[in-house]
Amino acid sequence: MKLESWIEIPENCDFPLENLPYGIAKLSNEKTVAVTRIGDTIIDLQSLSALNVFSDLKIANADIFNQPVLNNFIELGKDLHVKVRERLQEIFGIGSNNTELTEKIKQYSLYAADGVKMLMPVKVTDYTDFYSSIEHATNVGKMFRDPANALLPNWKHLPVGYHGRASSIVVSGSEIHRPNGQTMPQGAEKPVFGPSKMFDFELEMAFVVSKTTQLGESVKASEAEDYIFGFLLFNDLSARDIQSWEYVPLGPFLSKNFGSVVSPWIVTLEALEPFRVKGPIQEPEVLPYLKTSGNRNFDINLEVLIQPEHGEENLVCSSNFRYMYWNICQQLAHHTVNGCNITTGDLYASGTISGPEPGSYGSMLELTWRGTKPIQLSDGSERKFIHDHDTIIIRGYSEKNGLRIGFGECVVKVKPAREL
Ligand code: CA
After folding, report:
1. With left for phi above 0 and alpha for psi between -120 and 50, is residue 351 left, alpha or beta?
2. How far apart are the first and last CA of the chain?
3. What are the Cα distances from residue 43, in Å, to 34, 125, 338, 347?
4. Residue 104: phi, psi to the nearest 5?
5. Residue 392 — φ and ψ, nearest 5°?
6. What pTM did the predictor assign?
7. Which of 71, 140, 374, 394 is deepest in the core (most CB within 10 A)?
8. pLDDT of 97 above 80
9. Distance, CA 203 to ligand 1 centroid (Å)?
10. Measured in angstroms, how far is the CA atom of residue 21 from the centroid of ligand 1?
11. How do residues 348-372 score in pLDDT, each as one tens digit?
12. Active site residue 136
């Protein structure tokens, strides 16, 4: 049964009482604190703490919500996260009969979402990007290598990934300049330098790790979810022309590290529980350390929209997180099977999430098939890749039996390349 709150929740809203995502906000009174959200209302968790809402949960750090990032809260562990979630559902539920507390909350703890600036929710300690969509890997293999043997021989045996750059991950609402770099245009004899001409997005989800391990320890696939706090939307901005010249033999470098974007809300695994689904059948059979059972994929609808400056939003891609060939448990088990340590605040991105249909491809590279099939926008203009001043918007939500759990938006505006 759907939970009801005394806070108004608009129709088709991403943030019912069953969601309760976590973020960091600069409130209208200039305080920077941990927050959650119900409907269009931002809730100051530090102020709830001051009203003794969590006092019986015995959180040792009284300032756990009075922080510039969520890392310390995330480290408290799943048992406590579940208790905080239950307490929030209790006090914001329609059945809450503590009118004195309710009045104080209304007075001290609630803010209209449109007056609040959301900040980067975590200090990203390490960042890894996987490549776990079979449709995406196949499309890229067809375009850049051999259409008949698009997948490389290792792809179905391990979740391919690379270590990215944590410090250039920014929150939704940021602006990113088109990168300058070195490219080798087709037919040219030597490389040229200048602004990337093939600026792209990658539609991805990312999970945040909630436990720290020591170097030498491994996380078993069967226990991996105990190490995962929740998910964000992720846009892995990519310069395709820089990428195709630089990536041999060690993989992407400057084509990716100039900026990636996350949504401000971390939606917990608990909130996504009703939307678990089975992943695709894995054939050939994976090695024992990568075996998982149960429903380890999540049914999350994903959309990408392009909005030209002063123009309207154009939906260019509709995909779903459920298509992922490798699941999050396999990714974390593989990442640590050699003894690689993980840290609370690590971010693990899925790789571009493409579906089977052309309209579900998660990058311009695939949607326009390397620029050979441009997309028409509603203002009559064409896109092979992203133009300066375009805004890229990713939205994501799960929906089932009238319950909708959403992520809000992951938005970035592209600025012209810097003059050097
Ligand atoms: Ca990527």
Report:
1. left
2. 59
3. 9, 26, 42, 25
4. -65, -40
5. -105, 125
6. 0.97
7. 394
8. no
9. 8
10. 24
11. 999 999 999 999 999 999 999 999 9
12. yes
